Each structure stands twice: as structure tokens, then as C-alpha cells.
């Protein structure tokens, strides 16, 4: 019995597995039958339906046109099939401008081994079902808009070799259970992950590359990572890791790339890091690491890039550095407390590919070794030893570094003159020699350095004059010569530097005048001429510096009155005219300075009433004291202004008026009646040549009808330069030679007369550099025309969509800024709020200098109410640019203009019309840009921008990054301005400084 029982038991052990195997085989057969190639077809079609394609025309039709049942799916673009059977094994749709979501039906592609959806605009979550793909080895989802947590199932796939989820919006923590026995590559950088690095990661013994940087991970760097012996690259930077660097990382002898920078790590650099003999790039910057650099680190003889800046490192740098690391290209040790001499520079002559040398902000002392520079790498472009204790002279050998782009020696104890050899560095763009003790003069040879963008010689002992040749440095953007002993007059050639952004000459001995030519500095942001010996009047041309935010003319000898035109400095934030000899009254136009936060007019000879307005709402008494006789502003404790008439004088004049006024009134009434009679008579007699006086002609020149006929050659079609819905625009030359644009209205069109009245009234009340100026009108019963300033470069619309014309990125930024300044004036600076209502490229005109001006105020709204009030209207604006609320509420606000401006920004970047053929249904220009922002921006950028900026990106090492940041910033402003809800949009007063900052960022870089 026992034997039988034992036999039955053995039989049972055989039967059960056999039964399970047969059941599994039957199930597998059923699954295989069900999940055949027809299942693959339905899965692909489900993916196509979920991830609709967008982008340019070519991408738009790739999936739609190609993925059809008219052809086998194995021939579809991006689909790869097995050689033995028609089953999908790979799906590669990278950079196809896909949008929508990732279909969970992809999990039915049971033979799929590679899924690559890199660089699309897919959103939503990652389907958990992808973890069920039994053969999936590669999963690449970089650069999409995916959100939500990472499905735990993805980290439990025995077949997975590569997983890439970087540059998305994934959140949550990393899955704690990690069962990836074949994994070699994990990349999840630039997401929103939190929590700790899972301890199970140590099980991934085959892992070669792991990238977890730029997230929000916390905790310590696990010492168990030292057991991943196959690691070649590891990036954990840009997180919030604390604690010390584990010494166990020294076990990773295959490691070539280690990025632990931008965290909160502390302690010392472990000496075990010196065991990483294959290490080529080490980033430990922006932590709180202390102590000295371990000697063992210099054993890393293959090092190419060493970055330990912004820590608390101390001690000297060994003199044999260059011999220990002969392949070094980048050495960054700035912002520490390193000390000793700079003798190790001599050893860098062994580093034949050295490109960057930065040791700024340490405690190095002694002299720069004179003998080294002739043998340093000819590839050296950045040499920075600022903010140390370096003394003696600047070595003449620095002039041998012919590839130098940036030289920074400021904040040291240097003496002597600038070696003449430095003026031979033709490629030099940045020269920082300020806050030292240099002497001598600035030689005329500076004019040969045409690539210089920044010259900073602040707080030295330079004497003599600024050489006139400085005007040859055409690319100069920043000139800082403050706190020296420079004298004579400021050279006139300086005002020809139209790219100049910052000019700082304060505390020198300059004399003479500030000429009107200063108005040529169209992009200037800051001028400081404080504490010099400048004299004469302040010219009104200074008011043309529309971009300036900082103007300091204090402590000079300027005299005369303050020009009213300074009230046109709409962007100025700091204005100091104190300690001069200015007289007269404070211009009332200063009330227009809505951004000014610091205004100082003290210690002058001013008198009269202190104006009201924002500029004076926050000003302190000390900024107005020591003047002749200012009055008003009781909040500043100034005396009230005296009345113009005494009581006795007023009484006498009132008695006189009692008898004289009735007589005068009778005469005026008679004259008025007579004038009306004559006017009526003349109109009947010569209707064609008589004009009605328009309400906006009080201060415009009068132009007779027949002069307009002569100017346009009887409105010849050859002079036609524009055609609109209610009339035509002709180019004309008046009798005095002035070129004008004559806008003739077709009075048969309904609403034309009203449009004429609106535009005439609006333009008659506005004055701004970025609004088209009205010169005159001509109006009678049968003819109405506006005479406007002529804009030789026509409309923005023609520049955007012309085959022969192309706008650079900087030109587009300038145009955006010009339009924003014009709208800011209409919305916030004019006494009455004006809403344009029809902002679009055809209504943006460009003058001979490509300055943009807003035109066509035919349906503008003049509102005597607050900025958020609405005015009922119908048929406002142009489809595509018209704010959504116009159709629903019929109301007009300034935020409708902001919406149109936002669409205009997006159009300038993409080169796409908002009513183009590619936009239909719910997809519009804004939605299309939203889908691409921020991961696929480069795919929607106007190809003309890419073509014009290609050279700049090639010539500058970080040109592409600057270019990308600029585009992202512009698109961000455009999307913010064009939000659906009006109260969520920016106001133009907030848009202007943002665009100014974007422009300055491009210019400075």
C-alpha cells in the first residue's frame, strides 16, 4: 500500500505539470489564433485614431495618407515586420509631429520589440498595458507632453533593454520594485519626479547608462550604486540630493561620465574617485562640497571636462595639473576658496585642446606667469581669473591666444598698462578689465577689434580721451568706462553705435555737450553720465530713446529747461537729473512716465507746480529739494502754488468783464452766423475743392483736394499701394516734396463714413512713435481721404509672406516690441483708453528703419472708462485675430487687443496665418503652438528664421541655446496673451518689459 501510495504520488507529480502544460499550450494557441496579424492591423488603426498627426503639411498627411487598408500594414511608414511572418516587430515614428494620446491597444502587438515615439506632442499618461508586451526591448518616449506617474509595470519587464522617458511632465516617484534583468539604458531626465532612488536598482547588473537628472528627487545618493559595475554614464544632477558622495562610486571603474552637480551634497570629494581611471567628464558644481581636491583625482588622466565650481573647496591646485590631465578641454573651478599661486597654468601647455579656463572668485594670488601663454592651446577661447588677488602686470603673452573670445581679469590688483598685444585679438568679443589699478590711455587700436561686444574698464586709472576709432567697433553693445580719469569730449562716433545697449561713463572728466545724435542709439537700455563736466542744454532728441530704462545725467552742469519730450521715455524706470543748473518748470509730460520708480530732480533751479501722476506718487521729498520755488504736492510738504490773481485785481477784472463780455459775445455770434452762411455758399459753388474742417485738424496742415490729385497723378493705379474693404491707399508726393500715403474711402461702402470719422478722431488725439501719424484730411460730401505718413517698407504681412523678403529674428523682436509699445500707449498712457479692435499684420506698417507702426484705426473704440469696461459692438475685428469673447458677448475691452497681439506673436514665430488651410475645426494656430510647446518648438518655427540665424548659431558656442531660449520666451508670451479667458491674459503694460528683456537677452549674448 505504501508503495502504491508513493507511486501514485509520483504519478501525481507528473500528471499535474503535464496537465498545466497542455492547458498553457491550448491557451497559447488560442491567443496566437486570436492575436494574429489582423489583431496587429486593428492595433495600428487604434493607435492612428488616438494619435492624430499635426505640424507642417508634409507631416500632417504621413500617417493619414499612408496608413490605409489599401496596402499591407507591413508597408506602412514607420512599421517594421518580421521576415518570417507579417507581424509588427518595430514601430518607429520619431519626429512625426504626432499629437493626441498613446493607445493602450499597442499592447496587442505581441511581437513588438521596439517602440520609438521620440520628439512628438503626445500627451496623457503612459498606458500601463505597455508593460504586457512580452518581447519589448526598446521603449523610447523622449520629448513628448506625457504626464502622470510612470506605470510600475514598465519596471517589471524581463525583455526590456532600453527605456527613455526624458523631457516630459512625468510626476510621482520611481517604481520601488525594479525587475529589469537585461536593462542597459534608463533615461528619465527633465521630468517632475519626486522621492528617492529605489534600492532595487542595484539588481540591474547589466545597466550601463542611467540618467535621472533635472527632477525633484531627494534623499541621499545610494552607496549601492557602486555595485553597478557596468555603468559607463551616470547623471543625477539637478535634483535635491543631500548627504555625501558615496566612496563606493570609486568601484565603477568603467565610468566615463559622472554628473552630480546642482544638488545639495556636502562633505568632501572621496579620494576613491581617483580610481575612476576612465573618467572623462566630472560635474560636481553647485553643491556644498568642502575640503581640498584630493590628490588622487589627478590620476584621472583621461579627463576632458572637470567642473567643480560653486562649492566650498579650499587649498592649492597642484602645479602638475596639466601633465596629469593632458586631454583637458574644460577646467571650471570658479566660486570656491582655492588659494596659492597660478603656477599650474604653466603645466596647461600640455593640454593642447584646452578651450575654457575659469577660476573666478577664489583666493589665488601672485602674478600671472608670463612665460606660459605662448604655448597654451590655440583653441583657448575663454580665460577668466576675475575676483582673485592677482597682482603685477597683464602678461603680453596673452596676445598670442588668437582664438580668444572672452577675457576676464577684473576685480584683481593688476597694475601697469594694457599690453598692445591684446589689441591684436581680432576674435575677442568680451573684455573685462574693470576694478583693477590699470593706467595709461585707451589706444586707437581698439577700433580694429570689430567683434568686441562688451568693454568693461570700470574703476581704473585710465586717462586721456576715448579714441574716435571706437565708432568702428560696430558690434559694441556694452561700454563701461566709469570711475576713471578720462577727459575731453565724448567722441561723436560713439553715437553711431546703433547696437549699443549699456553706456556707463560716470565719474570721469568728460566735458562739452550731450549732442542730439544720442537719439541714434535706438536700442539703448541704460545711459549713466553722472559726475562729469557736461554742460549746455538737454536736447529734446533725448526723448526719442524709447527703449531706455535707466538715465542718469546727475552731477553735471546742464542748464536750461527740461524738455517736454523727456515725457516720451515711456519705459524709463530710473531718471536722475539732480545736481545740475536746470531751470523752468517740471514738464507736465512727466506724468506719462508710468514705469518710473526713481525720479530725482533735486539740487537744480526748478520752479512752479509739481505735476501729478505716477512718477510723483512715490517720489520722496529729498528727490525734489534744493530747487528755486517748487510748489504743490502737499503730501511732500511743499507749499501750495499761489493763485494767478489777487483779490483786488480779480474784482476789477470781473467788473470790466461785466460790461465788455456781452459786446464781445454779440460780435462772435454775428461772425459765426456769417461764417456758416459763407461756408454753405462756397460748398454749393465749388463742392469738389472745398473741405470740411475735420475734428482732428486743429494742429495739422491743410491740404486741398487738388493738391492730392496732383500728388497721386489723379489717383493713378500705378501709385496704388494698398487696397482694403472700404477704400484704396495711394502713394503721393505733395507740392513740397513730402511723400505721403493717401487713404481714399469708397463712400458707397456701408460704414465707410463712420470709419473715416473714427480714424480721424482717434489719430487726431494720439502721438506716439509706434502709431502711424496723420498729416491731414480732405473731406467733402463726395470725397473723404486721410493723408498719412508714408511707410516705405509697407506692411508686416508682405514681409512675412513674400518670397523675396525675409525678417531676421532680431527684426521680428523689434517689431513685436514696437507694436507692444504702441498698444501700451493706447491702453494705459493715453488720457482715454483706446482699443484698436483689428490688430493684424496688414495693419502693422514699417518705416524706412523697419520701425513698426500701428495703422487703420477705422473701427477703434475710444472709451472714457476704466481699462476693463466693455463697449457693445458688432462685426469687430478679423477672423483668426478676433478675441473669442467678441463673438459671445459682443463687448470690446483692451484685453481683446491683447489676444490679437498674442496671435500676432505666434504668427511671427511660426510664419503661419491663423486662418490658413491647415487650421480647421477645433484646431487653430494657438492650439497648434500649444501642442508643440515646449518640446517640439523647433518643428513649428518659421524656416526663414532658421535660415537667417544659422550663421549666428554656428559662430557662437552657445548660439543655439540662446536662440532656443528666445523662441521659447516669445511663444510663452504669445500663449499667455492669447488665453481664452480675458482676465487670464497679460496687460500690455506687462508685455512690454517682457519683450524688452527678451530683446536685451539676444543683444547681450
Automatic annotation (TrEMBL):
GO terms for cellular component: plasma membrane. Belongs to the protein kinase superfamily. Ser/Thr protein kinase family. The chain crosses the membrane at residues 659-678. Its main location: membrane. It is a single-pass membrane protein. It is an enzyme of class 2 (transferase). InterPro entries: Kinase-like_dom_sf (IPR011009), Leu-rich_rpt (IPR001611), Leu-rich_rpt_typical-subtyp (IPR003591), LRR_dom_sf (IPR032675), LRR_N_plant-typ (IPR013210), Plant_receptor-like_S/T_kinase (IPR051809), Prot_kinase_dom (IPR000719), Ser/Thr_kinase_AS (IPR008271). CDD domains: STKc_IRAK. Keywords: ATP-binding, Cell membrane, Glycoprotein, Kinase, Leucine-rich repeat, Membrane, Nucleotide-binding, Phosphoprotein, Receptor, Repeat, Serine/threonine-protein kinase, Signal, Transferase, Transmembrane, Transmembrane helix. Residues 1-20 form the signal peptide. This is non-specific serine/threonine protein kinase. Residues 715-1005 form the Protein kinase domain. Its EC number is 2.7.11.1. It catalyses: L-threonyl-[protein] + ATP = O-phospho-L-threonyl-[protein] + ADP + H(+); L-seryl-[protein] + ATP = O-phospho-L-seryl-[protein] + ADP + H(+). It is found in: Cell membrane. It comes from Iris pallida. GO terms for molecular function: ATP binding; protein serine/threonine kinase activity.
Amino acid at each position: 500500500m505504501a508503495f502504491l501510495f508513493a507511486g501514485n504520488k509520483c504519478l501525481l507529480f507528473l500528471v499535474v505539470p503535464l496537465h498545466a502544460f497542455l492547458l498553457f499550450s491550448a491557451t497559447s494557441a488560442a491567443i496566437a489564433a486570436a492575436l494574429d496579424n489582423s489583431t496587429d492591423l486593428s492595433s495600428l488603426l487604434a493607435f492612428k485614431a488616438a494619435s492624430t498627426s499635426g505640424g507642417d503639411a508634409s507631416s500632417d498627411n504621413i500617417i493619414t495618407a499612408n496608413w490605409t487598408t489599401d496596402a499591407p500594414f507591413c508597408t506602412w511608414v514607420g512599421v517594421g515586420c518580421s521576415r518570417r511572418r507579417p507581424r509588427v516587430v518595430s514601430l518607429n515614428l520619431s519626429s512625426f509631429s504626432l499629437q493626441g494620446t498613446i493607445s493602450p491597444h499597442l499592447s496587442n502587438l505581441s511581437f513588438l520589440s521596439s517602440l520609438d515615439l521620440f520628439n512628438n506632442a503626445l500627451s496623457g499618461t503612459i498606458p500601463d498595458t505597455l508593460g504586457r508586451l512580452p518581447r519589448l526591448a526598446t521603449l523610447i518616449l523622449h520629448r513628448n507632453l506625457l504626464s502622470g506617474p510612470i506605470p510600475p509595470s514598465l519596471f517589471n519587464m524581463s525583455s526590456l533593454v532600453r527605456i527613455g522617458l526624458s523631457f516630459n511632465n512625468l510626476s510621482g516617484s520611481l517604481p520601488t520594485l525594479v525587475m529589469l534583468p537585461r536593462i542597459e539604458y534608463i533615461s528619465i531626465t527633465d521630468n517632475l519626479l519626486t522621492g528617492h532612488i529605489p534600492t532595487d536598482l542595484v539588481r540591474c547588473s547589466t545597466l550601463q547608462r542611467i540618467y535621472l537628472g533635472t527632477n525633484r528627487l531627494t534623499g541621499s545618493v545610494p552607496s549601492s550604486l557602486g555595485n553597478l559595475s557596468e555603468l559607463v554614464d551616470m547623471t543625477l544632477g539637478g535634483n535635491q540630493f543631500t548627504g555625501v558622495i558615496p566612496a563606493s562610486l570609486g568601484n565603477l571603474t568603467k565610468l566615463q561620465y559622472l554628473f552630480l552637480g546642482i544638488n545639495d551634497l556636502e562633505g568632501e570629494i572621496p579620494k576613491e574617485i581617483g580610481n575612476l581611471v576612465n573618467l572623462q567628464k566630472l560635474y560636481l558644481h553647485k553643491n556644498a562640497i568642502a575640503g581640498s581636491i584630493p590628490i588622487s583625482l589627478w590620476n584621472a588622466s583621461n579627463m576632458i571636462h572637470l567642473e567643480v565650481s560653486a562649492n566650498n573647496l579650499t587649498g592649492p591646485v597642484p602645479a602638475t595639473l596639466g601633465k596629469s590631465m593632458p586631454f583637458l578641454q574644460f577646467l571650471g573651478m570658479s566660486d570656491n576658496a582655492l588659494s596659492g599661486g597660478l603656477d599650474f597654468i604653466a603645466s596647461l601647455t600640455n593640454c593642447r585642446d584646452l578651450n575654457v579656463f575659469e577660476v573666478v572668485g577664489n583666493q589665488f594670488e601672485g602674478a600671472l606667469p608670463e612665460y606660459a601663454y605662448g604655448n597654451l592651446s590655440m583653441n583657448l577661447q575663454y580665460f577668466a581669473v576675475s575676483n582673485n588677488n592677482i597682482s603685477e602686470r597683464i602678461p603680453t603673452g596673452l596676445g598670442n591666444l588668437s582664438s580668444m573670445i572672452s577675457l576676464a581679469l577684473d576685480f584683481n590688483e593688476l597694475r601697469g598698462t594694457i599690453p598692445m598685444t591684446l589689441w591684436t585679438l581680432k576674435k575677442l568679443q568680451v573684455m573685462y578689465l574693470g576694478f583693477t589699478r590699470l593706467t595709461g590711455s585707451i589706444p586707437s587700436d581698439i577700433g580694429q577689434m570689430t567683434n568686441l561686444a562688451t568693454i568693461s574698464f570700470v574703476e581704473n586709472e585710465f586717462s586721456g580721451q576715448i579714441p574716435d576709432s571706437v565708432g568702428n567697433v560696430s558690434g559694441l553693445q556694452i561700454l563701461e568706462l566709469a570711475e576713471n580719469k578720462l577727459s575731453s569730449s565724448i567722441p561723436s562716433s560713439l553715437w553711431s553705435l546703433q547696437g549699443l545697449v549699456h553706456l556707463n561713463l560716470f565719474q570721469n572728466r568728460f566735458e562739452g555737450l550731450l549732442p542730439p545724435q544720442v537719439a541714434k542709439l535706438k536700442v539703448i537700455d541704460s545711459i549713466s553720465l553722472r559726475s562729469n563736466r557736461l554742460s549746455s542744454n538737454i536736447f529734446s532728441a533725448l526723448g526719442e530713446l524709447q527703449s531706455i530704462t535707466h538715465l542718469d545725467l546727475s552731477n553735471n552742469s546742464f542748464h536750461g529747461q527740461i524738455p517736454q519730450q523727456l515725457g516720451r521715455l515711456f519705459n524709463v524706470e530710473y531718471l536722475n537729473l539732480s545736481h545740475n543748473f536746470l531751470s523752468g518748470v517740471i514738464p507736465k509730460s512727466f506724468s506719462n512716465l508710468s514705469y518710473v520708480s526713481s525720479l530725482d530732480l533735486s539740487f537744480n533751479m526748478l520752479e512752479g507746480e509739481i505735476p501729478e501722476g505716477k512718477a510723483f506718487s512715490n517720489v520722496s521729498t529729498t528727490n525734489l529739494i534744493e530747487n528755486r520755488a517748487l510748489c504743490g504736492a502737499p503730501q511732500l510738504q511743499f507749499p501750495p502754488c499761489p493763485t494767478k490773481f489777487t483779490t483786488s485785481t480779480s474784482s476789477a477784472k470781473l467788473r470790466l468783464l461785466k460790461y465788455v463780455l456781452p459786446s464781445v459775445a454779440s460780435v462772435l455770434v454775428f461772425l459765426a452766423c456769417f461764417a456758416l452762411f459763407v461756408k454753405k455758399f462756397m460748398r454749393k459753388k465749388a463742392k469738389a475743392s472745398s473741405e470740411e474742417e475735420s475734428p482732428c485738424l486743429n494742429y495739422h496742415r491743410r491740404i486741398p483736394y487738388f493738391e492730392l490729385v496732383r500728388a497721386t497723378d489723379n489717383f493713378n493705379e500705378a501709385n496704388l499701394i494698398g487696397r482694403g474693404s472700404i477704400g484704396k491707399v495711394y502713394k503721393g508726393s505733395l507740392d513740397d516734396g513730402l511723400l505721403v500715403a493717401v487713404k481714399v474711402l469708397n463712400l458707397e461702402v456701408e460704414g465707410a463714413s463712420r470709419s473715416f470719422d473714427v480714424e480721424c478722431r482717434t489719430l487726431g488725439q494720439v502721438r506716439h512713435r509706434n502709431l502711424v501719424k496723420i498729416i491731414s484730411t480732405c473731406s467733402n460730401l463726395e470725397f473723404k481721404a486721410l493723408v498719412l505718413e508714408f511707410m516705405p517698407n509697407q506692411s508686416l504681412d508682405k514681409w512675412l509672406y513674400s518670397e523675396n523678403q525675409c525678417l531676421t529674428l532680431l527684426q521680428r523682436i523689434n517689431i513685436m516690441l514696437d507694436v507692444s509699445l504702441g498698444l501700451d500707449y493706447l491702453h494705459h498712457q493715453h488720457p482715454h483708453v483706446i482699443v484698436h479692435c483689428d490688430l493684424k499684420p496688414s495693419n502693422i506698417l514699417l518705416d524706412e528703419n523697419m520701425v513698426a507702426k500701428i495703422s487703420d484705426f477705422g473701427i477703434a473704440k475710444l472709451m472714457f472708462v476704466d481699462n476693463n469696461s466693455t463697449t457693445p459692438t458688432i462685426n469687430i475685428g478679423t477672423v483668426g485675430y478676433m478675441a473669442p469673447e467678441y463673438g459671445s458677448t459682443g463687448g470690446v475691452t483692451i484685453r481683446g487687443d491683447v489676444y490679437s497681439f498674442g496671435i500676432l506673436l505666434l504668427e511671427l514665430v511660426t510664419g503661419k496665418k491663423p486662418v490658413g488651410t491647415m487650421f480647421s475645426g477645433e484646431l487653430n494656430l494657438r492650439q497648434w503652438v500649444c501642442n508643440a510647446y515646449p518640446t517640439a518648438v523647433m518643428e513649428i518655427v518659421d524656416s526663414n528664421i532658421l535660415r537667417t540665424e544659422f550663421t549666428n548659431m554656428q559662430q557662437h558656442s552657445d548660439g543655439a541655446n540662446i536662440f532656443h531660449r528666445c523662441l521659447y520666451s516669445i511663444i510663452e508670451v504669445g500663449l499667455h496673451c492669447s488665453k481664452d479667458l480675458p482676465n487670464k491674459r497679460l496687460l500690455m503694460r506687462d508685455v512690454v518689459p517682457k519683450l524688452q528683456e527678451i530683446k536685451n537677452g539676444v543683444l547681450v549674448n
